[in-house]
Amino acid sequence: MSSPRDCAACGLCRGRTNVVCPDGDPASPVAFVGEAPGQKEDEIGRPFQGRSGKVLDKLLEEEGVPRSSMYITNTVKCRPPGNRVPTAEEMSACLPHLEEELQERRLIVALGRTAAKDLLHREVKLSEEVNRPTTVTIRGRKIDLVVTYHPAASFYNAKAKDALREAIRIAKTYLEGRGNASSTGN
Ligand code: URA
């Protein structure tokens, strides 16, 4: 498989300034998966640099989780024009990269419905599934998965922010080596 840096597997490559490769600890047991790079991320080449990133960074700091201790990525590595939601075709073209990134993790946190749909290959009703531990099989390995709200949802929704905070707390237990999808109290 080619590196995402010179990937041309879908049309998003034509509008990008930078491929937005994952950030954080490449060996982390925990991966956070967002939707897609926005304008800031496209300019800088790193995920979660804009307004959503600021929300995420603040919650991580408040919960005592260094951003550098996690692995942070997106369903697609190139910015969709006008920040639209990536299409099923674009996500499927990027899936080999995402699977490569996620296959060795212990916990995946899907940030928002788009990431959840991409990982679970089905529609997801966030209000019914938020922070409910489940698993996903990636390249034959069963990995714990928690679906939660995207940081952008918490701009105007305190409940979404609380849910994201709770997902960070779950992630923290995995970073500390005591995580287990069935022991999160849900
Ligand atoms: N920035 C990202 O990197 N991903 C998102 O989903 C939103 C903003």
Largest sheet: 6 strands, mixed
N- to C-terminal separation?
38 Å
Shape: globular
Instruction: Return the string of H and E elements.
Output: EEHHEHEHHEEH
Number of helices: 6
Structural class: alpha/beta
Tell me the β content: 15-25%
Q: What small molecules accompany the polymer chains?
A: uracil
- State the assembly state of the protein chains: single chain
Rounded mean pLDDT is: 94
Give me the count of strands: 6
Unreliable stretches (pLDDT < 50, length at least 5) are none
Radius of gyration: 15 Å
> Strand order within the widest sheet?
1-3-2-4-6-5
Kindly state the percentage of residues in helix.
25-40%
Overview of the molecule:
- The chain has 186 residues and is an alpha/beta fold.
- It contains 6 helices and 6 strands, in the order ββααβαβααββα.
- Strands 1-3-2-4-6-5 form a 6-stranded mixed sheet.
- A hairpin with a 2-residue loop joins strand 5 and strand 6.
- The model has no long low-confidence stretch (mean pLDDT 94).
Keyword list:
186 residues; alpha/beta; 6-stranded mixed β-sheet; 6 helices; globular; binds uracil
